[in-house]
């Protein structure tokens, strides 16, 4: 069982532990942590929920709901970000939803559970999003299976400058 929610002041130790995990170099677990809040946890937990309302957005960014995933034992196992609209770039390469699982909690079904709860959140809280775009790198088998297991239908694969294709999936809510 996964619960998605905003962080509270009581989550600081769990957040810092997850943040210090051995993440892939191209994955940003905590958007805006370095840039907007200068690594200040109290500022971070205040600003991140406000970004869903369109506040504090850097130029070119869209409103985004950023939630953290906790398992039934209260461990922080991942996060999700829900972009409320798409720019041209997001339409091609980023999509509406981005999620990640803390490396120590991978291969336990958390990614599928996080995405399923994300889709439930969208259905309940963002009714203007009736069709969701998700993307993943062609080589990311785990993400591809997670998206497909949650109803993702492949539309196409776009070339990228990195030489690897970006798979674009749609899920109807």
Provide the helix percentage: 25-40%
Stated plainly, the CATH topology of the domain at 3-123 is called: Aminopeptidase
Q: Please count the beta strands (DSSP E, at least 2 residues each).
A: 7
Helical stretch tally: 5
Estimate what percentage of residues fall within beta strands: 15-25%
Mean pLDDT: 96
Query: What is the spatial order of strands in the main beta sheet?
Result: 1-2-3-4
Structural class: alpha+beta
**Envelope shape:** globular
Low-confidence segments, ≥5 residues, pLDDT <50? none
- Reading the helices and strands in chain order gives EHHEEHEHEHEE
The major sheet is characterized as:
4 strands, antiparallel
Description:
- The protein starts with a strand and ends with a strand.
- By secondary structure, the chain is α+β, with helices and mostly antiparallel strands.
- Strands 1-2-3-4 form a 4-stranded antiparallel sheet, with helices on both faces. A 3-stranded antiparallel sheet has the order 5-7-6, sandwiched between helices.
- The protein has a domain of 121 residues: Aminopeptidase (3-Layer(aba) Sandwich), CATH 3.40.630.
- It is built from 5 helices and 7 strands.
- Strand 2 and strand 3 form a beta hairpin.
- Helices cover 29% and strands 25% of the residues.
Question: What keywords describe this structure?
Answer:
four-stranded antiparallel β-sheet, 5 helices, alpha+beta, single chain
Furnish the topology, listing elements before pairings.
Layout: E1 3-5, H1 12-19, H2 41-51, E2 64-70, E3 76-83, H3 88-94, E4 97-101, H4 110-125, E5 131-137, H5 141-149, E6 153-158, E7 166-172
């Amino acid at each position: 069982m996964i619960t998605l929610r905003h962080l509270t002041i009581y989550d600081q130790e769990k957040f810092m532990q997850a943040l210090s995990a051995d993440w892939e170099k191209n994955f940003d677990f905590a958007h805006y942590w370095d840039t907007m809040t200068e690594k200040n946890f109290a500022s971070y937990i205040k600003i991140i929920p406000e970004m869903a309302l369109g506040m504090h957005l850097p130029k070119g960014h869209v409103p985004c709901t950023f939630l953290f995933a906790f398992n039934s034992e209260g461990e922080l196992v991942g996060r999700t970000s829900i972009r409320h609209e798409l720019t041209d770039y997001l339409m091609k390469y980023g999509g509406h939803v981005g999620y990640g699982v803390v490396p120590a909690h991978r291969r336990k079904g958390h990614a599928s559970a996080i995405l399923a709860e994300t889709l439930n959140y969208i259905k309940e809280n963002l009714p203007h999003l009736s069709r969701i775009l998700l993307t993943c790198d062609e080589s990311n088998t785990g993400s591809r299976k997670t998206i497909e297991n949650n109803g993702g239908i492949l539309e196409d694969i776009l070339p990228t400058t990195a030489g690897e294709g970006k798979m674009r999936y749609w899920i109807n809510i």
